[in-house]
Amino acid sequence: MLHRFANPARFLRIAAVVQPWCAAICALALAAGLYVAFFASPPDYQQGETVRIMYVHVPAAWMALFAYAAIALAAAVGLIWRHPLAFVAAGAAAPIGAAFTAICLATGSLWGKPMWGTWWVWDARLTSVLVLLFLYLGLIALRHAFDDSDRGERAAAVLALVGAVNLPIIKFSVDWWNTLHQPASVVKIGGPTIHPAMLTPLLLMAAGFMLFFVVVLLIRIRSELLARRLRALRLAQAHAAEPAAATRGPVLG
Amino acid sequence: MDALGQFLAMGGYGAYVWPAYAIALVVLAGILIASVRTLNTRRRAVAALEAALPRRRRQGGSADDA
What we know:
By secondary structure, chain A is mainly alpha-helical. In chain A, about 75% of the residues lie in helices and about 0% in strands.
């Protein structure tokens, strides 16, 4: 199964087919999600209109966790099976995950001010998500910290695996510690405890964010493969210039 | 106009709701545009090099033949 996608050329052919469909469905899901979020869902009985921040905050938080889990998985695949696309995918996903984490933190802050009375508290959930943002930034920095890009990728992969311990901490922080952040109300044992009128826009936005992640990931993977091709071509160009000089030698001799 | 004003006010929380969506839009649009631009730049660079390289190789080949 993995080997089927191991060939970058085959991957690029599949990506070219998948990407426009994902982009189209992404646009539809976001349009529908925004419509329902603003026009067809009620204000919360406690939180009033601020509940509409949830439709961008919660999907961004889910994507922040999902992207990191995907990176950790790709890092493991790259380290264990040396799949040629694994580190490429991990590197391409890191900035997207960082973007979703930043959105999650910023929108959470904008929600916290009117509802909790503060932009920020050092509680377990908020702190562990801030650590997630730093992990993403660390992955990006580490990858570019080596002259040998292969070593940078391996170092980033090890950090991604070690940092994965933060994922369950984030998920269960609201249960393990008494935090200001509310516990889960969608992904929980016994099913969601959220009204369908609010669950619908939430899931539509989440689908849109997920497809956005896929589309940008495919763009960035294609971009990284082109960067490698560029390096190979420049090397070939340098080598192509050499034989001309080399042939002059024997003629003179 | 009044309905629009009421909608934008978001029950008094407009100053929190709209920036949240604006930040999400700016960050997501930013990463999408940056990614597409880098892809296009690299695509042009690869195309230019691929166009230049075979000619050079052919020249090298003809020099060897001679």
